[in-house]
Task: inverse folding
């Protein structure tokens, strides 16, 4: 189970960065508004403001959001599990994103025309205790199947593991527990694109930010 969730957490980091990869370009740049729009589009599924700020279409931004969900689903779909289990996990990923909690502070403009944007995050405890009793549960399930004259396959055991993890994470999501707030500074830097100046946040900063939004340490 640890292996399953550790890979899932890595995918969350990777796909979040993908979903925030567009850049903003405008005469009067609002760095805080840009970061908030990035977060809202990537987590809440609210695409309109980010599309406007980045001169892109809502459909393009939504496609990036769906790409992040699809990246996670590609890992689940690698297991021979039922369509019902796959659909449950897709909904779970979307719900995890929507329950990320953050506050975007006022940006500071630096001498090099870059911006520093403070983002206060509250780490969602979605992996808390997700393995408690897991090994015993799996062992009991396998023994019950054997006692009943069945020999559970690897695929069946994988489905049991994933559904156990799903139930634990879903229960945590319903409880909505968050850790104490942490503030992370996000750099928003300008680059020249022909005669236009465009702004973007670095992938490394975004990766650091996502790590403060959900309790990956409990998945290790």
Result:
């Amino acid at each position: 189970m640890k292996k399953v969730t550790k890979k899932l957490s890595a995918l969350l980091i990777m796909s979040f960065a993908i979903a925030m990869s567009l850049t903003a370009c405008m005469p009067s740049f609002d760095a805080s508004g840009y970061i908030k729009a990035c977060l809202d589009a990537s987590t809440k599924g609210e695409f309109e403001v980010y599309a406007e700020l980045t001169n892109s279409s809502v459909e393009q931004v939504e496609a990036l959001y769906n790409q992040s969900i699809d990246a996670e689903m590609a890992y689940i779909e690698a297991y021979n599990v039922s369509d019902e289990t796959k659909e449950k996990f897709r909904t779970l990923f979307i719900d995890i994103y929507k329950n990320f909690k953050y506050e975007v502070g006022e940006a500071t403009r630096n001498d090099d025309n870059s911006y520093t944007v403070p983002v206060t995050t509250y780490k969602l405890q979605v992996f808390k205790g997700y393995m408690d009793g897991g090994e015993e549960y799996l062992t009991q399930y396998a023994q019950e199947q054997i006692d009943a004259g069945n020999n559970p396959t690897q695929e069946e055991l994988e489905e049991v593991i994933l559904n156990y993890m799903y139930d634990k994470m879903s229960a945590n999501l319903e409880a909505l527990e968050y850790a104490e707030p942490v503030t992370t500074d996000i750099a928003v830097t300008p680059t020249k694109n022909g005669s236009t100046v465009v702004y973007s946040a670095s992938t490394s900063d975004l990766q650091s930010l996502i790590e403060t939004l959900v309790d990956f340490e409990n998945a290790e």
